[in-house]
Design brief:
127 residues; mainly alpha; Non-ribosomal Peptide Synthetase Peptidyl Carrier Protein, Chain A; two-stranded antiparallel sheet; 5% strand; elongated
């Protein structure tokens, strides 16, 4: 069982997934800073200095943090847009690679086995 686990971890898929998770966590920190430190203040300028994280209302003892939800939606939209741009770029590179493969002229094909046999037969007849 330990050998199977080692083989699973050593496979490229598990390593790729681990790298993706680590980069995703780092990217989340960047997007959080972008939204909290740049986007929200910029939006606040246009809407009269409103800080989204401060928007909330209470109902009894429950506190509804609508501003935090708005920040989460903004973060999601930014991450979704960046992922869309990455996928779009990768797809364009893939299309360019396929187009380059198709653009290469095919090597001229030689005679088939039947054609060679016919030539040999004709050469033997000519003797």
């Amino acid at each position: 069982m330990l050998k199977e686990f080692r083989d699973f971890i050593a496979r490229g898929n598990a390593m790729d997934m681990a790298v993706g998770i680590i980069i995703g966590a780092a990217f989340t920190a960047i997007v959080t800073s972008l939204v909290d430190d740049l986007v929200n203040p910029l939006i606040g300028i246009f809407v009269g200095g409103i800080d989204f994280s401060a928007i909330s209302f209470g109902l009894g003892e429950a506190q509804f943090m609508i501003g935090n939800f708005i920040n989460a939606v903004i973060k999601f939209l930014i991450i979704a847009f960046v992922v869309f741009m990455l996928v779009r770029t990768v797809n364009n590179f893939a299309k360019m690679g396929k187009a380059a493969e198709k653009a290469e002229p095919e090597a001229p094909k030689g005679p088939t086995s039947e054609e060679l046999l016919v030539e040999i037969r004709d050469a033997l007849k000519a003797r």
